[in-house]
Structure formats: structure tokens, C-alpha cells
Amino acid sequence: MYMRKITTLIVALVAVLSLQAQGFVFQFQGEDLTDGETVVITAQEDLFGDLSCETSSLVLTLLRGTTASVTATLEVTSNSLNATALQWCMGGNCQVFETSLTKHFAMGFSELVQFDAIGIQSEGYLKATLRATVGIESHQVNILFVNGDVDGIKPLSQRRDGARAVYDLRGRRVQGRLPAGMYIVTEGERVRKVAIK
User: Fold this and answer.
1) Among 63, 77, 70, which Cα is nearest to 143's?
2) For each of the chain's 197 residues, which pLDDT tens digit applies?
3) CATH classification code of 22-150
4) The model's pTM
5) Across-strand partners of 70?
6) DSSP track, 19-76
7) How is residue 10 annotated by DSSP?
8) Mind giving me the DSSP string for 106-152?
9) CA distance 91 to 103
10) Would 156 disulfide with which of 37, 79, 142, 188, CB 3.0-4.6 Å?
11) Where are the domains of the chain?
């Protein structure tokens, strides 16, 4: 009798926890990212003629449900870009910060991340980790902003297995045969820029 009550309580607890699990993913340019994957974004000239890096197509998307309460933390682990400002607009309000910021907000089906390094003044890179928690589920994506030569940059792990990944200069993952152009190639901790002729 006592064991049956404990079993019933455990089953009820598991059911409640599974109801709280929303199910969500980070997406970049419409593609689902694996947990811990790195998005590479190169500096571009903005509307004002300044160099900036912007996560304009990085989105957090719910897989189940239409609304959720989110806790998100963006932490910069390395920054040599000498940008005039780091700005994070996820959750409806833009905030300027230096190394770390946590936000709590309600979201609909999807939420644009909108993390920008504005007014980049030097060659270099910025590495950041964005962790989001919805209910009991938590995922992270790594962000690598790059301006100039990327040889020698050690990003947060591109893929946990150290596999090789190739990105175009807009940060989109490229697979298969590469047409002529410039690419960013990551292999474990190593990042390099490659020209295909």
C-alpha cells in the first residue's frame, strides 16, 4: 500500500514536470541549432557607415505551446572588438551592457535575440554564450562576432565532437561542394578564414 502511494506520487510528479517542459530551440536563418552550437557573424557596415555585428536572424522558437516565461542570460567571455556599445534587445527592451546580463520576460511563439556590437573600432572578435530557460528546460547557443583576420581565434566549442564546420561570411552554415568565395572554417577550437578560387 505504501509503495503504491509513492509510485503514484512519482508518476504525478513526472506528469507535472512534463507539462512544464515547453520544448524550444534556437534557430539561425531558419535552421535549428544543436545545443551549444556556435553562430559565426562577421562585421558589416551598418546604415550609419559604422562596422557592426548583429544577430538579426538568431531566434528562440517554441516547439510546443504559444507562450512561455523565459529567463535568458547573455555572457561575454572574450571581447577585443573595441565596440562603442554592446546592446541586447531580446525580450522587448534594449539594454546596453558590458559583460553579462540576465532578463526575465514573457514571449510568444518566437523571440528575436537581437544582440549587437555597435561601432566596432578594431579588428578582433567577441565570444558570448546565450543561455535560455523555459520551465525546466535549458539550452544555450554560442555567438562569435568577428572583424578581420580570424586565424588564431579560439571560439567557444563549435561542436562538442570537434567536427569541422564551414560558414559563409553571413554566418550561414555551408555543406557540400564550396563555390568560389571566402569562408570561415571551424575545427574544434580552431577558426580560420579560407578563400576558395
Assistant:
1) 77
2) 666 666 665 655 444 444 444 499 999 888 888 899 889 888 888 777 788 999 988 999 998 878 899 999 999 998 989 899 999 999 888 999 999 999 999 999 899 999 999 999 988 889 999 999 998 999 999 999 998 865 555 443 333 445 677 777 767 777 777 777 877 777 665 666 777 76
3) 2.60.40.2410
4) 0.69
5) 105, 134
6) HH---EEEEETTEEPPTT-EEEEE-EE-TTS-EEEE-TTEEEEESS-S-EEEEEEEEE
7) H
8) EE-SEEE--EEEEEE-SSEEEEEEEEEEETTEEEEEEEEEEES--TT
9) 7
10) 142
11) 22-150
Cell numbers linked to 6: 509513492
> How far from 175 is each of 7, 126, 156, 164, 187, CA to CA, in Å?
49, 25, 21, 10, 14
The DSSP code for 59 is E
Residue 42 bridge partners (DSSP): 146
The C-alpha cell that represents 157 in the structure block: 566549442
As a whole number of angstroms, the distance between CA 152 and CA 129 comes to 20
Does residue 103 contact residue 109 with C-beta atoms inside 8 Å? no
39, 33 Cβ separation under 8 angstroms:
yes
